[in-house]
Design a protein that fits this description.
With 429 residues, this protein is mostly helical. It contains 16 helices and four strands. Strands 1-2-4-3 form a four-stranded mixed β-sheet.
């Protein structure tokens, strides 16, 4: 730990952190208010491009659902900002650390306890919003299928996974931070990359089945279609599976998961119930487009590259006294501050990412356009457009989002842009 630097470093960080938090909150409030006003202003009429496919009742339901989600997100935003201030400048993390030091001797166990205490308290503070979203908001619009019993089972399973997987990882990281010298951040990054790759490999076969049932696709006609599509695209997977997503939600989806020889294609049962075989084929072609353009490895490399920068930055900040004091924490005199540094960095990082979110969203939307273009080449573009229209309607996705809000948050292009390009490509334009 370096010697204490002049107090203005700490004060500068405190002021900068407060200003960044205020700017982030104001920006997100402004974006949410734009979204709600824009959606409400277009609630009473279906856009002309969709008038033949989407009923006014469905359009209004999507508008109401979007506005309800936005209102809840505003409340979560205000609560999250208050919690962040509580952990940092108001001394919550400092209090947690000092209290644990009264009960435990300094060392690895105490630092791991700080991490566990932070996650437990944070989860408890977020719990009311998670319950409201599931059992009130989603229930009101007919999406929730989760029962209180199933929710408790999921909570218990997630807790066990956290103890079995997360606790050893946290312990290892905290130990490496305090034991491997100045280059700890590089070795820890290597462990982090290896852990994520391992998780991608084991998730489909070992973790996901603990929460859902995955049955092999038993529709011979559809199986033949998707087999032919996979062969045309030169893609191989471990198999096609149907997931019982309907036991938790009415939302529909399809995805690829896994890594290496564990790759598999998963269809929600709700998706198969809503789409024709040709439309399912087109949706699968879109997902294959992501693999054809190597979007998944590109995103992984980007994530690993950014995480390397993050670990290097944390390696430097962990040695700066003002990093702790400027965020409301007095570092331990014995030098065991790895857990404090890690928690503070985790608290600050999402705040900084607010201002790069539009760039990341833009890359994601571009990937979706590329996957759509590939799907139009490999399947029927009209079928893909019809499938997306059904999914927009069934998932109550608004057709009239605010354009500025889209640029900041949307990982997928809005319906008007996406279907407009798709129809143009299908028509040979």
């Amino acid at each position: 730990m370096q010697e204490l630097l002049p107090v203005n470093y700490s004060t500068t960080l405190s002021i900068g952190f407060a200003l960044a938090l205020c700017a982030s909150v104001v920006l997100k409030f402004w974006l949410a208010s734009r979204q709600m006003r824009h959606v409400a202003a277009h609630r009473d009429a279906v856009p002309a491009a969709f008038a033949q496919h989407i009923s006014l009742a469905a359009h209004q339901r999507a508008a109401d659902y979007t506005i309800a989600q936005s209102r809840l997100s505003v409340l979560e935003l205000a609560w999250g900002a208050a919690v962040l201030l509580g952990w940092t400048l108001l001394g919550g993390l400092h209090l947690l650390n000092r209290q644990l030091l009264q009960w435990m001797d300094p060392g690895l166990a105490q630092q791991v306890a700080v991490m566990v205490g932070f996650f437990v308290v944070g989860s408890a503070l977020d719990l009311p919003f998670a319950l409201y979203r599931t059992f009130v908001l989603e229930q009101r619009f007919g999406f929730n299928k989760t029962t209180p019993r199933l929710w408790l089972q999921d909570f218990a399973k997630s807790t066990v996974l956290g103890l079995v997987i997360g606790l050893p990882l946290v312990t290892l990281i905290v130990w490496m931070m305090g034991s491997l010298g100045a280059s700890w951040w590089l070795w820890t990054w290597c462990v982090w990359v290896a852990f994520n790759l391992l998780l991608l490999w084991v998730y489909p076969s070992w973790i996901a089945p603990w929460f859902n049932q995955f049955k092999p696709l038993d529709n011979p006609s559809l199986q033949q279609r998707v087999d032919a599509l996979m062969q045309r695209c030169g893609f191989r997977s471990q198999g096609f599976y149907v997931m019982d997503g309907s036991k938790r939600s009415a939302h529909a989806n399809a995805y690829f998961t896994g890594f290496g020889n564990s790759k598999r294609v998963v269809f929600y049962d709700t998706l198969l119930a809503q789409l024709s075989e040709a439309e399912v084929d087109a949706v699968l072609a879109h997902e294959l487009g992501h693999f054809k353009h190597r979007h998944v490895p590109k995103r992984m490399l980007s994530m690993f590259g950014l995480s390397l920068v993050g670990f290097a930055l944390l390696g430097w900040l962990a040695q700066q006294v003002w990093f702790y004091t400027g965020l409301g924490v007095l570092p331990n005199m014995d030098g065991g501050n790895s857990a404090l540094a890690l928690v503070l960095f985790m608290l600050v990082l999402p705040l900084l990412s607010t201002f790069v979110a539009p760039l990341l969203a833009q890359f994601s939307r571009q990937h979706e356009f590329e996957a759509d273009a590939y799907a139009v080449q490999q399947a029927n573009g009209v079928d893909l457009a019809n499938a997306l229209l059904k999914l927009y309607q069934d998932n109550a996705s608004t057709l009239t989002p605010d354009p500025v809000y889209v640029r900041f948050y949307y990982s997928h292009p809005p319906a008007s842009e996406r279907l407009g390009r798709m129809r143009s490509m299908a028509a040979g334009g």
